Amino acid sequence: MNIQIFGKSKCFDTKKAERYFKERRIKFQRIDLSSKGLSRGEFNSVKTAVGLGEMIDNKAEGIEILEYLAYEVDKEEKLLENPSFIKTPIVRNGKNATIGYCPDIWKTWE
Questions:
Q1: Integer angstrom CA distances of residue 60 from 70, 103, 107
Q2: Distance (Å, rounded) from C-alpha 46 to C-alpha 22?
Q3: 78/46 Cα distance (integer angstroms)
Q4: Do 88 and 13 touch, CB atoms closer than 8 A?
Q5: What Cα–Cα distance (Å) separates residue 8 from each residue in 40, 71, 76, 86, 88?
Q6: Beta-carbon contacts of residue 80 (< 8 Å; ≥ 6 apart)
Q7: Would you say 98 and 51 are in contact if contact means Cβ atoms under 8 Å apart?
Q8: How confident is the model at residue 100 (pLDDT cuts 50, 70, 90)?
């Protein structure tokens, strides 16, 4: 298992996800989404696994700018430019990915 957790330092669900894997002694790599963001490859992998709509944090400040973008490709570019618009935590295990706190799905990865 090769777990990556993309999260924000002040996100409660990110902390819960980290605790979930720590308690089970499963090693993971933590990536600060605010400072590092997602590479295009990582972004596309997560988008394929969960869908673009699931990735958008509708509560993020300034998110309304996405409403004015007609094309999905433009929305993707805006999300890559502004990782604060992406929901957290993103937990990846190879080609599998989840967004949010999803212990029921993570159990199936073990």
A1: 19, 24, 29
A2: 23
A3: 16
A4: yes
A5: 19, 27, 19, 10, 7
A6: 37, 38, 40, 43
A7: no
A8: very high
- For 1-37, write each residue's pLDDT tens digit: 789 999 998 899 999 999 999 999 999 999 999 888 8
Q: Which amino acid appears at position 83 of this protein? A: P
Report whether pLDDT(48) > 90: yes
Cα 80 to Cα 74: distance, rounded to the nearest angstrom: 10
Query: 66 and 78 in contact (C-beta within 8 Å)?
Result: yes
User: Rounded mean pLDDT of 47-75?
Assistant: 85
Mapping DSSP onto H, E and C, the string for 14-77 reads HHHHHHHHHHCCCCEEEEEHHHHCCCHHHHHHHHHHHCHHHHECCCCCCHHHHHHCCCHHHHHH
Residue 102 near residue 93 (C-beta atoms within 8 A): no
Tokens of 101: 């706190």
Q: 């990782």: which residue's tokens?
A: 83
| Tokens 């990582």, located at residue | 42
